[in-house]
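input
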Amino acid sequence: MTSTQLARKPLAARIKQRLKRAMGPWGVFLQGFIEHPVMVGSIIPSSRFTIARMLGPVKWDECKLFVEYGPGVGTFCRPVLERLPRDGRLIVIDTNPLYIDYLKATITDSRFIPVLGSAADVEDIVHAHGFDHADYVLSGLPFSTLPDGVGPAIAAATYRVLRPGGAFLVYQFSAKARDFMARHFTRIDADFEWLNVLPCKLFWGWKE
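output
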């Protein structure tokens, strides 16, 4: 956008555009939270400690398809791609076009597939990209604030799309997600990460 075009925009829009430029991905993340607070789990991206602990149990040599719900500005995307085999794929699903457009512009890895859509449609999305199942699904979606019926639908669809031995990886500030997971996953491992803003609960639901 040129300086002339920027000057023609309303003052509030100009300020927001300048702040987003100055803050980089943090600005994009903050804008997404302000516009859709119910769909964004936190105003602050996850810490490197949360990322490392959340991804720790993944058997990367067995992972051909990793799926993430609510990728935001890619806080988990890059660490996942660093660990993913060369023939693996990472599909990320988000309902916010702001985040999807940002990820398309900033992550050029050929294994990366950003999709504008709902996590409840994960089965259709996975099949549309030529896969029968996912090996792991990661979610930071705020299950406690999702619209009625959405959380249970996501948990059920995730269980169906996972292969036996795969896992649903969830990080949350509340235990609400575990309630939805427990309807489908008989084994749920749990942990807690203090070094995060805010400290968060970690869950791994294994499809046995």
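quick obs: The domain at 39-206 is CATH 3.40.50.150 (Rossmann fold).
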